[in-house]
């Protein structure tokens, strides 16, 4: 099925079954943690860019709802995240995420300091991407939130969330959550450009249940530091060396030891982390914890940094539960992650 045919099918199915892009549609995942730490007010002041892509487009804002994102480098990119992580988990945010950007402008929000803990930028002939790790506490995210998948298609073909886009790209997807690698919180965002059909094969959003390691294999996902590299194109998503393919929903699902290989990288430069910008949000628990610690309280920063109590246990969420219209199987596919978090224990149709 070509992408266009798939899009038509998706639209027809959307019209027939009238999916509602509202909170809770994605369903699974632990409830959003309540606010347990009050962040100290940051020193961030919005500055409107006077040159480059943002010139003339105005400032970012702590309450911005902009969904036009960008990917420039390991220290200058955006991620789609909940506008209110006290209410939304990462799956729910598939309906309403907004762009948080390291250098926010044009109504996007500034990325809170300390959220991105490592990032690796890769540029190939067909896409740019950043993969890395994050500190969930800074965005009030549950450490057991298996996460969501965001793209420019969604159930109604207008974005997941509606209006989400990346400058210079015609397709993108983002995976973010804390289940792909045990004990790590990881993200990946890829923006594909050029010929639309070719572009889509590298940004194919019909693998939303498979997770970051399948769709964006990269040897540096969990590695420390910030790097900018060129990379070879991998095979299109779902394709294997030798010509075999896997489509989400096929009767047998590859486990992590049979994921497509990572592309090789070259011309890598290690760069310094983004300079701290003084950005805090009311839910910026890490900042709150630091403020408590430096304010002479007896509480230690590490103890205060994550005090949410996940309500529903380790296996509460189907990982990457989707609202994408491209998954047209009659019954909803459900992936249960094993306790180890890597092997797909069940794939029920
Ligand atoms: C600025 O924001 C508007 C509205 O979200 C969007 O249409 C436009 O593409 C954005 N421009 C850039 C350069 O990000």
TrEMBL record:
Residues 238-273, 299-320 are annotated as: Disordered. Residues 244-255, 264-273 have a biased composition (Polar residues). It comes from the Eukaryota. InterPro entries: SRP1/TIP1-like. Transmembrane segments: none annotated. Residues 299-313 have a biased composition (Low complexity). Residues 1-22 form the signal peptide. Keywords: Signal. The keyword Signal applies. This is Uncharacterized protein. It comes from Tilletiaria anomala (strain ATCC 24038 / CBS 436.72 / UBC 951).
